[in-house]
Amino acid sequence: MIELWKSWPSIKSKPLNLEFEIPTDKTHKFWDYVEAGEFRTTRCKSCGSLTFPPVGDCVKCADSDMEWVELDGRGEVVAFTHVIARPSSFQERPPYTIVIADLVDGLKVLAWIEGSEMTEVEVGMKVRLEAGMTVDGDPSYWFVPE
User: Fold this and answer.
1) Run of H or E residues at 79
2) Which residue has the higher pLDDT, 115 or 20?
């Protein structure tokens, strides 16, 4: 892996610690699916609205009758950024790239991209979502080049 970023000028970042209590009573299944290697989200049974991240109540019609659907996960990069000045919780990791992709499923998803050098990522790049466990044992999802 080329570590081009090490040759770039840099400054020392200030510590940033963010911690939130996020209610997951209606969406905790998402992480169970991710852990099993499946990428699912919610769709409203009343109006058909598909949402990501998953929600407990429809953002369009406010109905609570939601169902879990698996996404195809293929898409195209519409924006990206290289994260060089990393939050303190990621200081031990090398810089990384985050992309926003338009999925063929009709949603935009933001996630890290794996399996690609920073210099290879570009708008229009074909990507696919993958889900599973990180090397640290945490459930996560990410894009890989198609």
Assistant:
1) strand 74-83
2) 115
